[in-house]
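Extended Data, panel c. Modelled sequence:
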Amino acid sequence: MPIESGCRVVVELVESTGEFERRVFTIVPTEQADFKTGLLDESAPLSRVLVGHFAGQTIPYRVGGLKEVRILEVQHIPGTTSGEAADKRRADVRKAEAQSEITSQMIFASARGSKWGNYEVDMDKLLEEDKKKEEEAKDKDRSESK
């Protein structure tokens, strides 16, 4: 079976030194991709190289220190991915944005001798605003998924 979106692929990423790393990926649409959990974006360079190939093949792949990819196993797994990875990624981005805002305000508040004088960060207010934004985003995500 050729590799396509929805396939679970076991590969060895072979470095030019001959060392290799075994990795397991499931190739998924962009909105479902989450590299940390093994969900590889179908438009990623590695996916584009793998698509159409078969288990047992070795494909040249010169990226960074890599020289080739050995395809060890290909398994089509229908319906194994969902929008949960995309939802998690959106939640992580919202959390990072909120943390960035808090950090920026803390840095601004700690700047001595700024032309704005004493500036105090109201952490309780920021955290409450963050929580409110997170709830609004969750509500929006829920309504969009219906």
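The domain at 7-76 is CATH 3.10.50.30 (Chitinase A; domain 3). This feature is highlighted in the accompanying rendering.
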